[in-house]
Specification:
Low-confidence stretches: 1-12
Shape: globular
Helix content: 25-40%
Strand content: 15-25%
Radius of gyration: 25 Å
Distance between the termini: 41 Å
Largest sheet: 6 strands, mixed
């Protein structure tokens, strides 16, 4: 898997945006294709497949605003430029936006939603433009309704205005595909398609539109490198009851890919990537039944389907992918064990290096961690940019080190490391917060209460199909009890050698309308935290497998579930005030540490890594 260098700088801190905004506003006054004038232009930070992380070609919001976080929406009017982003990125956006921009802190009661702001600020008769490829149907409809109440109009603008002013826009990537064998996937493409078509028949649909890149990769048992850290490739798929249509850069379909499809028992009709809209429109019109399209697909695709034939729901692939089959689940457990070896080697090395007085920085530390992982079997690359954050940098929730911000890792400050890897048999994501000296009472108190919340969630027992939103408070209560909180979600789904953030389920305050409820063999993160602006950050993150629980009346037959932690890495006991823990919490941590030791110690003995083994033995001692 292609790995972006840790030293690469894709966005300049505090980029000057005045000339770009002037050029954009000139286009807004005279739209291409004789579309007239718009008073506001919306620039989402997504691509035509609604990806969370983007190829450089699609980083339009970052290009215009200078803010390169994974969640942001820019709005440019004749006189103002505003950026909406959530609590994960308040600090980052504040540092990256220049004086031309106003930061809108999404999620705060005082911050209006984009549609409410537009409806209030625009004059009646105004038009608002957006690239319909970059906005979902689920987002387009309420936005259009809200703007219409202010006597304004929402307009699909093509081509994208940012593309017209981006003189050195990187080309769209077209990288090689990687077939993934059934020893890793568990099921062939034929078997997956059989289930998909059964679901289509149940819903009276004869056409299924698949635009999410991870769904396409999972369905076809293929992986790619078109987006850094995300093993996906740019394509569309249309499934009918008789045919499988793949829309892709045809140079990618080399003989080995056709052989892959033959081995998986399917025939594929290959089309050019740009033919998707034309073929979809033809198939939708000809379809005798419903056309199934996710509300998370772009409005540009959705509007091609006759309204009376549209069936809006998350695709069956989304749910099938979220519930890991037996092979995938075993792979997830196995890769977390190997990942645990690498993590222990890194933290043991880091402690030794600092104790010896050898300089180590956030960047050199992240580089060493990557080196440790690269030695593990089935390793393919990182699953996201490593968050290697020392001291105050840890308070920036999605920080990653750049030469301009690089700090030493030392024994005077907390060090937060959030990292993950892609393996052929799974994806990892883990955060540990450590201190190599004497932590303050404030740091210990906060860390201990983060841990209490993390333990509370990992030991929760709940009914089958309960939605993740209802579990969020369990992880926050210990922090709330002492007046602390965190401004990000508590847990996200994770892919199987796929995207590190995977829906449709999650654990957080915000409603996830497509959350089907938790089921056995879903995998989610458990990551409460606390961040003191400009001082330090604390997060403890594990990946958990949803498993069955045996309790009481089993919720009157509904079924009981709980979590099993698959991450294998000690939690630093130096940062714990044991007097804050209950006996049950102490026992849980001791049991976890015993399991980590018993799992990893034999592997470290096998490779004769005595230094890491000694560190592991010390770090997993009972408290």
């Amino acid at each position: 898997m292609r790995i972006r260098s840790l030293f690469a700088v894709d966005a300049v801190i505090m980029k000057s945006t005045g000339e770009l905004l002037t050029a954009l506003r000139q286009l807004m006054k005279n739209l291409p294709n004789n579309l007239g004038t718009i008073s506001a232009y919306i620039i989402p930070s997504t691509d035509a497949h609604q990806s969370e992380y983007l190829a450089a070609h699609d980083e339009r919001c970052a290009f215009v605003s200078g803010f390169d976080g994974s969640a942001g929406t820019a709005v440019v009017t004749e006189t103002e430029a505003l950026l909406w982003t959530d609590g994960r990125y308040y600090q980052q956006a504040g540092k990256q936006l220049d004086t031309n921009w106003k930061l809108m802190k999404d999620g705060l009661p005082s911050t209006p939603a984009i549609d409410a702001w537009l409806a209030k600020m625009l004059q009646p008769g105004s038009r608002v433009g957006v690239d319909a490829n970059l906005i979902t149907a689920a987002a387009w409809n309420p936005l259009q309704t809200s703007i219409k109440t202010a006597s304004c109009t929402l307009l699909a603008v093509t081509p994208n205005l940012v593309d017209l002013i981006w003189k050195e826009q990187p080309p769209a990537p077209h990288n090689q595909l990687l077939p993934l064998a059934t020893i890793f996937t568990g099921h062939s493409v034929f078997e997956k398609l059989t289930v998909v078509r059964e679901k289509m028949v149940e819903k009276r649909a004869s056409v299924l539109v698949v635009s999410a890149l991870d769904e396409i990769a999972w369905l076809l048992n293929l992986r790619g490198t078109d987006i850094d850290y995300n093993p996906v490739f740019f394509a569309y798929v249309i499934v009918t009851l008789e045919e499988l249509h793949l829309f892709i850069d045809e140079t990618k379909i080399v003989p080995t890919i056709f052989e892959h499809f033959r081995e998986n028992g399917v025939e594929v009709r290959v089309h050019a990537y740009d033919d998707m809209h034309r073929v979809l429109q033809r198939l939708a019109v000809a379809s005798p039944h419903l056309v199934w399209v996710s509300s998370g697909s772009s409005y540009a695709l959705t509007m091609l389907i006759p309204e009376e034939k549209r069936f809006h729901d998350i695709t069956p692939i989304n749910l099938m992918k979220a519930v890991k089959n037996a092979t995938e689940a075993q792979g997830m457990r196995n890769c977390h064990i190997r990942d645990g070896v690498a993590l222990c080697q890194y933290f043991a090395w880091l402690e030794r290096t600092i104790a010896a007085g050898t300089p180590v920085t956030e960047i050199s530390g992240a580089t060493e961690l990557e080196r440790c992982r690269s030695r593990q079997q089935h390793y393919k690359g990182l699953s996201f940019t490593t968050i290697s954050a020392s001291g105050p940098n840890g308070s920036i929730i999605h920080y990653h080190p750049l030469p301009e911000t690089n700090r030493p890792i030392n024994n005077q400050e907390l060090y937060l490391c959030d990292s993950g890897a892609q393996y052929l048999d799974g994806t990892t994501d883990v955060t540990r917060t450590v201190h190599f000296g004497k932590p303050s009472d404030e740091e210990i108190r906060a860390f201990t209460h983060v841990l209490k919340g993390q333990i509370a969630l990992s030991t929760a027992i709940f009914p089958r199909r309960v939605k993740g939103q209802f579990l969020d408070t369990i992880a926050r209560k210990a922090l709330w009890d002492i007046g602390l909180d965190y401004s990000h979600g508590t847990g996200h789904g994770i892919g199987h050698y796929l995207n590190v953030h995977e829906g449709p389920m999650g654990i957080g305050i915000r409603l996830m309308p497509n959350d089907p409820g938790l089921e056995e063999n879903m995998f989610l993160s458990n990551e409460p935290g606390y961040y003191k602006d400009g001082k330090f950050g604390i997060r403890i993150e594990d990946i958990m497998q949803v498993t069955t629980a045996d309790v009481g009346t089993n919720f009157d037959g509904r079924g009981a579930l709980t979590f099993h932690t698959v991450t294998m890495c000690p939690i630093q006991t130096r940062l714990i005030d044991v007097t804050f823990l209950t006996q049950r919490e102490r026992q849980h941590l001791n049991n976890y540490h015993r399991r980590v030791y018993e799992t990893l110690a034999p592997l470290l003995r096998e490779i004769e890594d005595q230094e890491t083994l000694a560190w592991l033995e010390r770090e997993t001692r009972s408290i």
